[in-house]
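Q: Predict the assembly, please.
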Amino acid sequence: MSEQLAKTYDPKAFEEKIYQHWMEKDFFKADANSEKPPYSIVLPPPNITGQLHIGHALDHTLQDILIRWKRMQGYETLWQPGTDHASISTEVKVVEKLKKEEGLTKKDVGREGFLERAWSWREEYGRKIVSQMKKLGNSCDWSRERFTMDEGLNEAVTEVFIRLYEKGLIYKGNRIINWCPSCRTSLSDAEVDHHDKKGNFWHVKYPIKDTDEFVVIATTRPETMLGDTAVAVHPEDKRYQHLIGKVAILPLLGRELPIIADEYVDQDMGTGALKITPSHDPNDFEIGLRHNLEQILVLDEEAKVNERGEQYNGLDRYEARKAIVKDLETGSFLLEVKEHDHSVGQCSRCTTVVEPITSEQWFVKMESLAKPAMDVVNNGDIQFVPDRFSKTYLNWLENIRDWCISRQLWWGHQIPAYYCSECDEIMVSKEAPTQCVKCGSADVVQDEDVLDTWFSSALWPFSTLGWPEDTKELEKFYPTDVLVTGYDIIFFWVVRMAFSGLEFMDKIPFKHVLVHGLVRDAEGRKMSKSLGNGIDPLEAIEEFGADALRFTLITGNTPGNDMRFHLERLESSRNFANKLWNATRFVLMNNEDAVEKYEDVKEHLNTMDYWIISRFNQVVRDVTENMDRFELGIALQKIYDFVWNEYCDWYIEFSKSRLYGENLEEKKVDYENFQLTFEELDYDVQKKRISLQIPIDSKDKFV
RNA sequence: GGGACAUUAACUCAGUUGGGAGAGUGUUAGCUCGACAAGCUAAAAGUCGCAGGUUCAAGUCCUGUAUGUCCCACCA
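A: Predicted assembly structure:
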């Protein structure tokens, strides 16, 4: 009799020890010089903004299962871990902390002081998240841990920026962008969420110069009229033919506005006449370019009216709206007000309503990059699981617009562009130039802005392996085998990794993209801090164990679909872990005469032994097939069924008669049901050409 | 406006190539039998959203439809 195990499994007593053992033995270390075939996964780097949430737990568990499975199959596996600096999110957090703890603002402490605090934030939270991932049981190669702002990755980012710039794929331009007046930075289109909001349609009379006529314009944002530089109608609109080429007078400010004709105008929308505000509306911006209209920016970085707004200068955009509407009314310019719902863009970080404004920003030209990224999905080099997400991916790329990559933030990769204060020459280079290449002035300053956080994440599959150096890691582990991620970041991340990999490595970054859904609460709501309905994976681990949590997340979940998280399922998962524990306990309690080698026992195998062996082999085959198809939930269910319903309920029960010599009838074993099982067994065993004698009718003990 | 997904037992969900309707939880009845009451043995429980179609055969394929969820879009 070997040592007696406790009656119930206590994860807390083992998980940490086992993990330590794994680490000490270097089980997760990847060897780039290995002869074994490679299998690699890059971990989507968690943000350093806070702690691990249940979505990470799902994402990581899927990867951990895949990587461990391949490791056991004899592959040289690399699970590359790391964390993401999460530019805007982290900056927002650090600003909050600064205010709360020191009562200071960004400006008070200055760029250097701010970055110092951001780095200490990163130290604290980066470490915390890594320790949480270890608690989850992630079998990453921690010796290779990276950070999107570590030295090597900085170099990769700079290299990419310079290469794209030199290729003409990065440009600086005055474009209309999304501006968050609260974060005071530009945002990419993907960082803006659109929500329907109740609003009004204000019908405003714009008088026609030197006539008694006027044209009525419907607008949802009267305050932007301060920046109007034209009025547009459809070239074929019969109502307005006579006005084209004439001049309208902007109410309140009295500015003269040319009346132009443009195909964009929808005759059925509003009044069919459109005010054009090139600096504050994306469509108007385009129209403005076509007609060479002046751009008048009337809002500042806090979305307050600037001096171009004359008497409204200093008002917040909403105060300005009220004031303008009131003045329009007083001046009899306001014809009517109708209720109207329209979609409003909000900052995905802070939910402030985003303001479209014209601004000088850096962009990545997307057209030529998008094409090959679409090709590799169309021709099947990259496969989505489930496949429907390739549509999401392709659809996004088909309608891609240039990517605004500059952010007016401090935490991130500062743009490697330098300006000559004398002649405004732009220089893009790795090191700061000591003097202007054009005029020789030594007065050279670096661009203040940082890059969009996704600019560095886009390089993750190869930057973490040492690019731009030519490393053996790249040779061995690139392209990676599968990327596991949620459908919510296909646009942000998957697309950008795809075109970056193709552009700089000339190879796809991964062969499969395994997409999972969101983990929702029991009512199906998104988990969020404001609702307080989040389930902390660490609390779940504390109470039920990491295996129970992982089992819960994988079973009953299929690729691409959201799942609801019920605490009861954690219990049943824990029960399964306990079942395994007790099966082991039973074996250990009875292994006095255990033999080590199959050869020593094969003469003595009985029906039950053959049965369980054949079932085991079949389950291994089935499970492997499911795993190959990324059907982890089904695979795990099959293991569960085998262990519980076949191994424990039948094999162990029957083995008791052999061990204790008990009468089966007394044990109340259900012969009838067993007979059914045996018929199935017969089939299995026949396939394996094992001849059997089945003493079904025997009520004697099985020997 | 475009697109995706969901709809199967009381609840949460599986169901891979068309042929058995399943699991966990819950419910009911009976079990302190040397692994496990976090357990065991049973039971009840579903016209697989609705309507058509293809097929010898449809939860599974096709068409339409209802309801819900989500994503994309520069709808003044």
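The first strand of chain A starts at residue 38 and ends at 42. Residues 106-136 of chain A form the longest helix (31 residues).
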